[in-house]
Amino acid sequence: MTSSIGKPGSPWNVPNLLTTVRLVLAIAVIVLIAVGSYLPALVTFLLAASTDWLDGYWARKYGQVTKLGRIFDPFVDKIIICGTFIALVAVPTSGIAAWAAVVVVGRELLVTSLRAIIEGAGGDFSATFWGKWKMVFQCAAVAFSLLWLLQKDPANWLGWVRDGTVTLAVAITIYSGIDYTLAAARVLGREGAE
Question: Which of 35, 52, 86, 178 is the most exposed place for a label (fewest CB within 10 A)?
Fold first, then answer.
């Protein structure tokens, strides 16, 4: 019996396998935060975040972009970011407020809905410049929050960095949500005019 992994047209190529690994790591991060194991949570989160870059790079370089990957990759990104923000809300000293998690989750639901409408109609709704930077700052906010929780006597500067990255992450999350909404409106407007 031969394996279909990596064959042209197979949904089970290297990028999708990396995304599957990232999903498992995302669940592990959420569990580790819940049980107060912040160092393993940080290491696992950073490993998961790095696979996000790697699977996209691999898919583009080796022409392994699939329909499954176009749905699965952003879905797993949302699990790791939304799940981690929600898990950190439950830790009173994390620096992640409930309203910030609501903004993050709300934006992800909005963009997912818009993507489904646009791509369902045959349009392209790929990640934008601001969407990519949003992910970078959200990951930084999570990392600094976990670093803060690791310290027995955290320095004030670390708290400022954590709060700054959380604030930037939320601001860029809001801005990128608006950016995607305007892009979707333009696409839908063009389709309505045809």
Answer: 35
